[in-house]
Design goal:
It is found in: Secreted. With 267 residues, the chain is mainly alpha-helical. It has helices spanning 4-19, 34-44, 53-60, 88-99, 108-123, 138-151, 156-165, 171-183, 195-202, 207-221, 227-240, 251-260; strands at residues 30-32, 79-80, 125-126, 132-134, 187-188, 192-193. Bound molecules: 2-acetamido-2-deoxy-beta-D-glucopyranose (3 copies).
C-alpha cells in the first residue's frame, strides 16, 4: 500500500530543492526561524496558546527543557544585541535570577514565559525570519546513523565490530562518523566543523569554546590525515573531549542502538 506520506514526499522534496538552494548542503540539518517556530506552536495550541505558548516555542526550537526549567542560552541566537550594548548578557542573567528562578518548578509554563520575556526585553532585537540551526535529537541522530550505515554498505557484523573496537579505530568506523557529521550538517571536509552549530548542539557558548574547537581542528588538520580519520578525530578530540561544553551526541550509544535496535532517549 502506498501511504499518503510517500505520495507527498517527492513533491515536498522538489519544492525544497527549488526553494532552498542555500540549504542544499544542509543534508538532514534542521533550520527554523523564530516565526516558523511561532507558526508551528500556533497550529498545535488553541488560539493564543494560553500561558503555555512560550514553553511550546522552547520545545519546538529546542531551547527549553522542563528538567532544567530555564531557557538554554542558545535562545540568544534568535536575538541581536545592540552593538553598543555591553551589558545585555548580565541584564538577561539578572532578569532570569529575579523572575524565573523564584517561580516554583511545577509552574513550568510561567517559568518559560518569564524566561523568554527576559530575552525579549534585555537581550536584543528578535531575529524573526532567519532560519537558524536547531539541534539534532537522539531520534534523528539514530536515523542519520542508520542511513549512513546503509549508504556505506556496512554489514551488521561490521557495525558490531565498530561498536566493540571504537569508531576511531577502523576506516569503516571513522567513515561512518564522518558521514553522520556531514549529514547532520555539523561538518564538511572543506571547512571542518561548523563551530556555531556545535555551540548550539553542545551548549558551548562563549568565545573560549569556539576558539578551542577551532584551534583543536587546525592542529589536527596539519597532520595530513585522510578525510574520515580527520572527521572522527575532530569529533573525538575537539567536541567530545571539550571541557567547555556538554556534548550531547553520544556516538557510542548511537552505535550500540544501531546494532541492537535500541534507540537512546534523552536530550
Ligand atoms: C557581568 O557580570 C560579571 C559578574 O557579575 C562581571 O564580572 C562583569 O564585569 C559584568 N560584565 C559587564 C559587561 O558589566
Ligand atoms: C577530502 O576532502 C577534500 C576537501 O578538503 C576534497 O577535496 C577531497 O576530494 C576529499 N577526498 C575524498 C577521498 O573524499
Ligand atoms: C533535560 O536536561 C537534562 C539535564 O541536562 C537531561 O538529563 C535530560 O535528558 C533533558 N531532557 C530532555 C527531555 O531533553
Amino acid at each position: 500500500m502506498v501511504s499518503h506520506r510517500e505520495l507527498i514526499l517527492p513533491s515536498l522534496l522538489w519544492i525544497g530543492i527549488l526553494g532552498l538552494q542555500a540549504a542544499s548542503l544542509q543534508h538532514s540539518a534542521t533550520l527554523k526561524s523564530f516565526n516558523g517556530i511561532i507558526n508551528e506552536c500556533s497550529s498545535y495550541l488553541s488560539p493564543g496558546g494560553g500561558s503555555c505558548s512560550d514553553r511550546c516555542l522552547g520545545l519546538v526550537g529546542r531551547f527549553w527543557n522542563d528538567t532544567v526549567a530555564r531557557p538554554s542560552v542558545s535562545v540568544g541566537r534568535f536575538y541581536r544585541p545592540d552593538p553598543c550594548d555591553q551589558d545585555y548578557i548580565n541584564r538577561t542573567l539578572d532578569c532570569i535570577c529575579d523572575t524565573v528562578l523564584p517561580v516554583p518548578r511545577n509552574d513550568i509554563c510561567q517559568r518559560a514565559s518569564n524566561g523568554l520575556q527576559c530575552y525579549r526585553y534585555q537581550y536584543g532585537r528578535l531575529v524573526a525570519s532567519d532560519p537558524l540551526y536547531v539541534g539534532i535529537t537522539p531520534l534523528q541522530s539514530q536515523q542519520v546513523f542508520q542511513e549512513c550505515s546503509q549508504m556505506l554498505s556496512l554489514s551488521p557484523v561490521q557495525l558490531q565490530q565498530i561498536a566493540q573496537s571504537g569508531y576511531s579505530n577502523s576506516p569503516e568506523g571513522s567513515c561512518l562518523v564522518r558521514c553522520y557529521l556531514i549529514r547532520a550538517g555539523l561538518y564538511t571536509d572543506s571547512h571542518g566543523p561548523d563551530i556555531a552549530r556545535f555551540a548550539v548542539q553542545c551548549e558551548g557558548y562563549d568565545d573560549a569554546y569556539e576558539a578551542s574547537v577551532g584551534k583543536c581542528y587546525q592542529e589536527l588538520k596539519l597532520k595530513q590525515l585522510d578525510n574520515c580519520t580527520l572527521a572522527a578525530r575532530m569529533y573525538d578530540e575537539c567536541i567530545q573531549s571539550n571541557k567547555l561544553s556538554n556534548s550531547n551526541i553520544d556516538i557510542v550509544s548511537l552505535l550500540v542502538g544501531l546494532v541492537t535496535g535500541f534507540i537512546p532517549v534523552g536530550k
